[in-house]
Specification:
The complex is a heterodimer.
Chain A: H1 3-12, E1 22-25, H2 28-38, H3 48-52, H4 66-69, E2 86-96, E3 105-108, E4 111-120, E5 123-135, E6 141-152
Antiparallel strand pairs in A: 1-3, 2-6, 4-5, 5-6
Chain B: E1 26-28, H1 32-42, H2 52-57, H3 67-79, E2 87-96, E3 106-116, E4 121-129, E5 135-145
Chain lengths: ~150, ~150
């Protein structure tokens, strides 16, 4: 068994381990900046007066805004046995249960959801998936995100 | 900056959508400046998205797009057709197959793969190709109509 496969097994034993929660207030300027960066022009992301007349009642965030709410921390995990040189983001999965509105206070925490090794063209690859649940200040689950990345020694 | 005016036309009617239907063509070409804007907006400062020398040392021909930016553009192929005013994206996934580069077109296509009358949802498959026709990114969306 390779060092990387052994490490993946150690990580499997840590599935469910969570990092520090991150709480973010969804600000109008942050939503506008995000919408502009992705090239969105829908006034739901820019104009509170217009948004107030819609079924949302307030400006909302675009669907991939969860990327900006997830924070940059990771769960505390055992150190890898090798130094990784290449890191690529391979998969995302989002579920949205309610709109994320300007003014919402959203809390999430990164959780290790999966770890496995695959053989690629250039040797072994370690895949890890981090899962996030986004809740609002009322405690309601508004979205989930599963984020998978791949590392190569 | 103010939002440029957009059509807030009601979009397609759920009853008119059929499985197999193609989405209208959608294409965007992110610039390097847009990658920097995106890095700031998402808070993602991975150097492979703004540092040419770093990207080359990492084996890329130059800086690469944020996967999430391509994903956001693919979803706009859906929301340009059926905006949140008429339908919610309730589930979506994305797979990044190969890097995409600033200055190159992201050509999006989409197909309605299934329609569920009782839930008022439609499932879509989306694909982004680069200027050489190679698929860089693939996504799925479940859209729930009002």
């Amino acid at each position: 068994m390779s060092a990387l496969t052994e490490y993946a097994d150690v990580l499997k034993g840590n599935i469910g381990v969570r990092g520090e929660p991150v709480t973010t207030e969804v600000e109008k300027s942050a939503v506008r900046k995000f919408a502009r960066a992705i090239g969105e022009t829908n006034p739901l992301y820019y104009d509170p007066g217009y948004a107030a007349t819609t079924r949302f009642g307030a400006m909302i965030a675009p669907p991939t805004f969860v990327a900006a709410l997830k924070g940059t921390g990771l769960p505390p995990l055992p150190d890898p046995p090798v130094t990784f040189t290449v890191l690529l983001h391979t998969d995302d999965r989002i579920q949205q249960f309610a709109p994320i509105r300007v003014g919402d206070v959203i809390t999430t925490a990164p959780e290790l959801a999966d770890a496995f090794v695959k053989n690629g063209r250039n040797g072994e690859l370690l895949f890890t998936t981090f899962a996030y649940e986004f809740t609002n200040s009322g405690g309601a689950l508004v979205a989930t995100l599963a984020w998978t990345e791949v590392q190569r020694p | 900056m103010t939002a440029s005016p957009v059509s807030t036309a009601p979009g397609p009617r759920f009853d008119d959508i059929t499985a197999g239907q193609q989405l209208p063509p959608f294409q965007r070409t992110p610039t390097k400046a847009q990658l920097v804007m995106y890095a700031g907006a998402e808070d993602d400062y991975m150097p492979v998205h703004f540092d040419h020398h770093y990207a080359v040392a990492a084996g890329q021909p130059g800086v690469i797009n944020h996967g999430w930016l391509t994903y956001a553009i693919l979803l706009q192929a859906v929301t340009a057709w059926a905006p949140p005013q008429v339908a919610d994206i309730v589930a979506t996934s994305c797979r990044y197959l190969r890097p995409a580069f600033p200055g190159e077109a992201i050509v999006c296509s989409g197909t309605v793969t299934a329609k569920h009358d009782e839930k008022r949802t439609v499932d879509l498959e989306l694909s982004a190709t680069d200027s050489s026709g190679a698929e860089t990114t693939r996504a799925t969306v479940t859209l729930r109509f009002q």
